[in-house]
Amino acid sequence: MARETLKTLFHPFVTGTVEPLASDARVAFLGAEAGFQLPEGFEAELLPVQGLRPLYLKLQAAHLPVTPDMPEGPFDAGFLLLNKHRGENENRLATLLRTVKPGGLILIAGSKEDGVQAMRKKLLQLGVDFEHMPKYHGVAVWFFAPGHAADLAAKLDNPAVTIEGRFQAAPGMFSHDRVDEGSELLASRLPTDFDGNAADLGAGWGYLSVMLAEASPRVNRIDLFEADHAALEAAKANLAALVPDLQARFFWQDLAREEVKERYDLVIMNPPFHEGHAAEPGLGQAMIKAAATALRQGGRLLMVANRGLPYEPVLAGLFRESGETCRNARFKVLWGRK
Question: What is the CATH number of the domain that holds 270?
């Protein structure tokens, strides 16, 4: 089901509160999701930007010209659909301020859970004169890009974060400001004598791949699979900087829907278990199935999970052998042999 806030975003056009854009206008739509209906008379060229692979694929299936990277500007207008990551929301707005022409419409929408109130407060702090309209359990906020938009953008920027003095990550990525405790536990149990081909499923910004390469210097190759395009780009940079001699490949892929084509001797992973604000064990279960498919006969899976998640029956059904390596107060390291 499409997010309600997609309707919120276009509501100012539907009501006539915001004037229609010119038919030849170029509009960057950051955080775009599929499922929206363009208002009657909306003829501008809409350019959706979405770096999360599952959402990207839905936009692609809707025959929209979606891209994971920001298209080349300038733009006549910019739309922003907020998400739960405040820093990423602010960075996206900064991008629009830098690329929308002076006087161009900037239209934002989100729910309370997406941080729309925090965004309104930020705009007030910056002295932006904006209008707003509540609808469909969300709020639409809009203003016109001022002449000093670049100065405002600089005040919104949330730069990349350096983690443990060596990894780089950015707001919006999983655990962007610290090493996740589950990944840290798994890293402490990685093999030290591995010399085959490995896959890191849901690799994020590359922490586990770096740790495996350092634990097992004779590893032949590591392939990283990640659905977040920005995180995968960060992983490329982190591996190039930290393990430059490692043979690695990078795949932007939705593991719940797109099959892993290669076969591996080892799979490591810290699968996500949240979709939005709710726990969703089905995501991790789908990744365990992907891991089982990706492993050669005799290959091993090593994964970490929240202690309360019911992954053991899935492992038992897909692997010849399976069990638990260790656990702490919050996490457990599980294994399976194909």
Answer: 3.40.50.150
